[in-house]
Write a structure and sequence with these properties.
alpha/beta, Udp-n-acetylmuramoylalanyl-d-glutamate--2,6- Diaminopimelate Ligase, Chain: A, domain 1, UDP-N-acetylmuramoyl-L-alanine:D-glutamate ligase, 3 domains, 6-stranded parallel β-sheet, 6-stranded mixed β-sheet, 19 strands, 36% helix, 20% strand
Length: 432
């Protein structure tokens, strides 16, 4: 079956799915295969559950006219997504904004969605479906009514972005920032720059444009090296001070006060990016500010939550050296007499891991903390190297910290909770 025939089946279907647990009648089921799973084993179950067709690998022995056999189901999914991206509006080209970066991708994507939605019908990546499966699924959720698509792209390996742009084919791009993350996969900070820079590479080769933070010398240099046409943003703004009573980011842009529900001055660049993209697509500053003011983050990203006993700054979805430093620097500026941090290990840092965790421990000394709770083996090694601080307690797992907090409750504290996804720092939240 060629791509045109497959696309006709897709257009007649109710969408695509890769998981039988969420399958809806009339969908196309793609049987994806990974290291620890093989969706081909569930193809017949998908058909029994109402799938219109199941796209499976050629080695599947069952015979059914609703089975579409291909050499590689993931490749077929990507091909279908790329074809849809190009043909969903017929002869008109859909503007696609590609988004990547070390920190702030999902928050920035949500801000861009909110801003653009004041004037346009927008399709954007849901949650953080930003990998080689999530990006095709995001593209396939675009409808003929979509006027702009915002596609988030993540990377753990050197060629990830290069592969994803071949599917999403963006006309515009944004790299939020470039920092230290996934060093185990990228090898070095220069490796991170090369990997993220593949978005700029694609745009430069295909006549695209990049929104570039003019206040970020790394991004400016990366764009300049490629001769890329840029749409700069990052005008000077005033970031207002915060306290535990007014912890949210507030900033002034062109004389207009922007009051957000985001915690952390590092989100100022994300706000500026969303406003710049909105203005490029006809959204006024007032409309953009209104959308940003109304946006409330979720999923443990830059959230502030008041419990019966404490004020929590929940940033527990992920962590790397860059985002950890930014979070701690912001926490340092918070004026409060009882500040506490609960930090989990930063994963995938390779040979630099212990040294990077040592840097975090040293940074704690200047944060004005009452207590610090550190979770994970990497922090244990770091403390062993730099020496234990009297305000530091170590725990092997977030479960152990949660159990300790249940027996030793904290009250009246402002608490930053942050760590890599695998540490599951959200487990401590119910005890706070």
């Amino acid at each position: 079956m060629n791509i045109i025939e497959l696309y006709q089946l897709f257009r007649a279907s109710s969408g695509v799915n890769t998981d039988t647990r969420s399958l809806r009648p009339g969908q196309l089921f793609f049987a994806l295969k990974g290291e620890n799973f093989d969706g081909n084993a569930y193809a017949m179950a998908a058909l029994d559950a109402g799938a219109a067709y199941a796209v499976v690998n050629e080695y599947v022995v069952e015979e059914d006219p609703r089975l579409i056999k291909v050499p590689d189901t993931l490749a077929a999914l990507k091909d279908l997504a790329a074809w849809h991206r190009e043909h969903v509006l017929g002869e008109r080209r859909l503007p696609v904004i590609g988004l990547t970066g070390t920190n702030g991708k999902t928050t920035t994507k949500e801000l861009i969605r909110e801003v653009l939605s004041t004037r346009h019908r927008v399709t954007a990546t849901e949650g953080n479906l930003n990998n080689d499966i999530g990006v095709p699924l995001s593209l396939l959720s675009i409808t003929p009514e979509t006027e702009i698509a915002v596609i988030e792209m993540g990377a753990n390996h050197p060629d990830d972005i290069g592969k994803l742009v071949q599917v999403s084919r963006p006309d515009y791009g944004l790299i939020t920032n470039v920092g230290k993350a996934h060093l185990l996969g990228f090898g070095s900070f220069d490796g991170v720059k090369r990997a993220k820079g593949q978005l700029y590479d694609y745009l430069a080769a295909h006549g695209g444009k990049a929104f570039v933070n003019a206040a970020d010398p790394v991004l400016v240099e990366m764009a300049s090296q490629r001769g890329l046409e840029t749409l700069p943003y990052g005008a000077v703004q005033e970031v207002l001070p915060t306290t535990s009573e007014t912890p949210f980011l507030r900033l002034c842009i062109d004389g207009m006060l922007v009051e957000t529900h985001l915690v952390g001055a590092y989100n100022a660049a994300n706000v500026l990016a969303a406003i710049a993209i909105g203005q490029a697509f006809g959204v006024s500053l007032a409309e953009a500010v209104g959308a940003i003011t109304a946006y409330v983050p979720a999923n443990n990203r830059s959230q502030m939550v008041r419990t019966e006993r404490n004020v929590l700054i929940e940033d527990a979805y992920n962590a790397n050296p860059s985002s950890m430093a930014a979070a701690l620097d912001n926490f340092t500026t918070l004026h409060d007499s009882h500040k506490v941090v609960m930090l989990g290990d930063m994963r995938e840092l390779g040979v630099d891991s212990v040294w990077e965790h040592m840097q975090v421990v040293r940074r704690l000394d200047g944060c004005g903390l009452s207590q610090a709770f550190l979770v994970g083996d990497e922090f244990r090694k770091a403390v062993a190297n730099v020496g234990c601080r009297p305000y530091v307690r170590l725990f092997a797992t977030s479960d152990q910290l949660a159990a300790w907090l249940a027996g030793n409750p904290l009250e009246g504290a402002t608490i930053l909770v942050k760590g890599s996804r695998g540490i599951r720092m959200e487990k401590v939240l119910p005890a706070l």
